[in-house]
Amino acid sequence: MKKTIKFTTLALAGVMAASMAACSGGGGTDTTTASGGDTTATTTAGGSSSDLANTLVYAGEEVSTINPLLDTHGELTQIVFSGLLKLDGNGKPTEDLAESYAFDESALTYTFKLRQGVKWHDGEDFNADDVVYTYKRILEDEALADSIRSDYENISSVDKKDDYTVEIKLKKLMLPIETYFAIGILPQHLYDGQDLETTEYNQKPIGTGRYKMASWDADGGMITFTANTDYYGKVPNIEKLVYKTVGDETTKATMIQAGEADLAWLNSKYATTFNGNNNFTQWVFKTADYRAASMDMSSDFWKKNADSIGVLNYAVDKQSIVDSVLVGQGETAYSPIQRNPLGTDKAADIYTYDTDKFASEMEKLGWKKGSDGIYERNGDKFHFTIQTREWEEERVDIANVVSSMLKKVGVEMEVVFVQKFDWKSGYNGFLAGYATEFDPDMIYRQYTTDGSDNNMHYSNAEVDKYLEEGRYGATEDARKTAYSNFEKAYAQSPGVLLIAYLEGNYVGVNGLKGLDTTRTLGHHAVGVMWNIEDWTINR
Fold this sequence. Notes:
The chain is about 25% helix and about 25% strand.
């Protein structure tokens, strides 16, 4: 759905003056140029009208690394790198670097026939060695950040059959594995022998994708890309992409209004301030992006009080948060796979906003209010800490409102503001954002007991059982049943206080065309560039 929203100039007038210097993007001299890139593509922020004739300036998130094995939800890895498969507008796998593929169920083996004639951005040939190298790094590199490792643990072997044929064998049938074959492939000739965490190619990425990096101005907060004219698919219409790294949401909104950016994802409050101005267009995407208070189950407080997480749902008026903080752009959350076709079992929506119910359930659990009005049990106050990144305004607002609601009923959720989440800090949790925009198996690594991305140490044998059944179910019906059971089991014993799902509000100049809202976007509304080759910009 595309709609134009009214803009009120006064809403941003105050922040524009304070933010203009911060978002100017100029003055930086620490510039990295990518090997094989267009070294003439460095541009000053804004640039001349001729420089920007076919250039898109995008106000995006802070970026320090462009590497598909390290950054699985970044926008830029998806335009620089290509996978064996890619995900279409409906989130379904289709061929990419593989021109065709087949699955032999009796042998549990995928055979990928690779495209011939594909070039890396530095001009070298792509072949099967690169695919084998990438997957073996995922499977064998113990130094690699392990957040994605659970996605690939069912792979038993990856073998080159010839220069353009690769076989990947599974340990057992796993229907969702095709989603993970979309991960970007790395060039062996550059990354072999490199530490993936520290290699210079994290800032000088060389892929086979639609855009190649031309320069990275770290001081100026600007990364410049040019269209890959040797791309094996449709070469993008927009010749140059300037990605400005922006530290806060106010600045992004200011940049759009001041003409310093052509497109940005804005939180709902900022997006609605563009209502009615004919110079701007808003695209509203459905996202699977939810916000929640995610509890660290390894902390002493939750080790003793895990039975009291679910009851907090009765004390939080989630709809009022959607209506106020999100300006109605979202919906209340009850399941981590609520916006997934294989999820959405309303039988898991077992909590309502009911403070009387909250009080009676707390009494059943043995909590009693102390003289200060805060609940106590076994000598402990119901007080826990939630870290929240101070520059994410929408997340800060949600945390503060939830804290206020809980305080009124006798629970202290202390909001601690940080620049960066620290899992070893001793806090009792964090104000989380996650998304399951494609296959629901994406939550496996976060919610299973030994999941590689289970940083909150949640463990529930029943949940593990249903997520295993969902991962290895032989039919879509069997998998849907498994995920329905997961949702209901998790609701009974959650590790997360789910709050709300967000919509993906993008605001851009009217001359920008081609954004396709078919796709459900991910965390921080990532995925908008899934069809960037079709976009055009007319100044």
